Automatic annotation (TrEMBL), chains A, B:
It comes from Streptomyces griseorubiginosus. Residues 3-57 form the HTH lacI-type domain. This is LacI family transcriptional regulator. CDD domains: HTH_LacI, PBP1_LacI_sugar_binding-like. The keyword Nucleotide-binding does not apply. One of its GO terms (molecular function) is DNA-binding transcription factor activity. SUPFAM superfamilies: lambda repressor-like DNA-binding domains (SSF47413), Periplasmic binding protein-like I (SSF53822). Coiled coil: none annotated. Keywords: DNA-binding, Transcription, Transcription regulation.
DNA sequence: ACTTGGATAGAAAGCGCTTGCTGCAACGCT
DNA sequence: AGCGTTGCAGCAAGCGCTTTCTATCCAAGT
């Protein structure tokens, strides 16, 4: 049926053990023998049986990448960067690993299930990207699962997610709080005093941190926040559109709208325009992440750039054991304020 | 060390065979026994060893999803839809499969390598999304690889990619040619006679088909095309920006720019604006795909909507054997012209 | 010339699971 | 009462690889 190691061995007139060693390159094999084996492999078009070798070697070459929403470039960019470092194809030869990205859709259950699936596959490493859900039971379950994975030898890396002290996982965290604060301070510096905030879904670390940064900026400048100025929604444009309309309804005198991310900001822009308001003359808008399309908004979006690709690449390297983890296993990745046309001084 | 089937069997006082059967649910087991086993599984926190079971059963629960660019929502949307149908988490219990998306970056070698990796893992199915590279040797290599995978029992589905007759793979193809034609006809109908075209990378089916549609429309209306009106580039905004500048340099009298996709169109819009031209008053712009952000361009982008999520979902179901393949194994998915603000009658 | 040791290659014992086949009650039939 | 069924459970033989341990060969050491 399918070609096996034994077939190759027979053809190359060596033992299966030798073929295995040639293929793994972890044991001295005479050059002439090696060549004979490789020729046989080629002639028979042999492909190693992954499951069998994983079973025997008790290690697999799978690396899992968990993302909240694969259709969102925020995750796509990170996943792409991680995967390209994982090696798989494109990486240097040798450790050819299969970087697989799994889309949780932001659902806690799916997150856990994927982790189990990866555990079942005995994944070599797992990278979790983006914010975490802040539900206590779920966090406990996650921590337990991660610990179990780690105990089984799976390397765990968090990319753009807060540290999980209990699990000892390496974490590259985005400084969402700092970025949010800086962004709002920029707006305050421009003269804004009544700022609406469109937050992401509740019970999410990213949502909370960005909002905290926003509020910290307000507090630092003695601006008392009106509870009506905050609306929660999803991380998509539609949600931004609706939330903006709601914000405008609650307080038409707002002079700025800060969005949880760029997609939401785009929706906000659309809603403002549809309401006959000009940006930034009537209302300033700010996003977060600086995804590629943000610069194409009209006017271009003021936002906080997160080095997604760089962070992803680093996370990938750490997951592969090709880069030293940061001291303490935790590193904070800062964002950079990008001031563009969507923010300006308020009227009057 | 780690818990094995045998441990569970011992604890439940049954044979390993029985545990396996309970877990797979493909053999009658007395209810009381089943319950005892499940309790033991739970108590020991047992997780099946994937490689071992794949080896023994000669089947795996991996399903590969190949995409050209994971950071591009075009692929992200399809991949998400496919993955959610693959089941994995979220799907109904039972056939819990791991849908893994692999990012080829549009590179032929990586595409092939991923296929080999999936073959090595004995993937249950593989879905290839998006356009194919039109290099003859590579196509032959791909066909051979796909055939081999198919022979090994892996189901192959092409989503948004032209059929590959040699391989007998199921194909859900986008009607890029038809969409391109319709789009350009819309522009011609508006009165445009000098249309620039920003094509995607050469040697790509998607690029060629869209361009052919564009040219067919021109030909059908007796418009002779100036070779200077076509520029090739990548499928990203940057490329669209540069190509537009080039187009303008070559022929400043163009009244419309048709882009290979929405991202490119966005770049085109930016270039036009930066050149002091208004859209659509001075120059009309059209994209392709209708990605979520297209409606947020200012003015909103005229484009062709491709039912990415629907097609992906269907491809996923077919890959899982949960839906009948289309008759003949090939289905054409049409796009829908979305006329919006970025296209209008030319000046004068 | 004889021992020693380095360099290769082979034999064989699993890795943890699945599954065809066998075993054995309890059951219903004539 | 005798016997074929039916329903469950266990035995044991692998699945295709890796890896430890052993065997062999030859160059070098004394």
């Amino acid at each position: 049926m399918t070609v096996t190691l034994a077939d190759v061995a027979a053809r190359a007139q060596v033992s299966p053990a030798t073929v295995s060693r040639v293929l793994n390159g972890n044991y001295p094999v005479a050059a002439s023998t090696r060549e004979r084996v490789l020729r046989a492999v080629d002639e028979l078009d042999y492909v190693l049986n992954g499951p069998a070798s994983a079973l025997a070697a008790a290690t697999s070459d799978l690396v899992g990448i968990l993302v909240n929403d694969i259709a969102d470039p925020f995750f796509g960019i990170m996943a792409g960067a991680i995967q390209s470092e994982i090696g798989g194809p494109g990486g240097r030869a040798g450790g050819e690993r299969l970087g697989v990205v799994c889309n949780t859709g932001g659902s806690p259950e799916r997150e856990l299930t994927y982790l189990t699936l990866l555990q079942r596959q005995r994944a070599a490493a797992v990278v979790l990207t983006g914010g975490a859900v802040e539900d206590a039971p779920h966090q406990a379950a996650m921590a337990a699962k991660l610990r179990k994975l780690a105990d089984a030898g799976t390397r765990i890396v968090l990319c753009g997610r807060p540290p999980s002290p209990e699990t000892g996982a390496i974490a590259l965290t985005f400084d969402n709080r700092g970025g949010g604060k800086e962004l709002t301070e920029h707006l305050i510096g421009l003269g804004h005093r009544r700022l609406g905030y469109i937050a992401g879904p509740e019970e999410r670390t990213t949502t909370r941190h960005r909002l905290e940064g926003h509020r910290a900026a307000l507090a630092a400048h003695g601006i008392e926040e009106d509870p009506r100025w905050t609306v929660h929604g999803r991380y998509d444009r539609r949600s931004g559109y609706e939330a903006t309309l709601e914000l405008l309804r609650r307080d038409p005198s707002l002079t700025a709208v800060v969005a949880a991310n760029d997609s939401v900001a785009l929706g906000a822009c659309a809603a403002l325009r549809d309401s006959g308001l000009r940006i930034p003359d009537d209302v300033s808008v700010a996003g977060f992440d600086d995804l590629p399309f943000s610069i194409d908004a009209v006017p271009a979006l003021t936002t906080v750039r997160l080095p997604l690709a760089e962070a992803g690449a680093r996370a990938g390297r750490i997951a592969m054991g090709r880069e030293e983890p940061p001291p303490g296993g935790i590193a904070t990745v800062r964002g950079e304020l990008m001031v563009r046309g969507s923010s300006g001084a308020p009227r009057g």
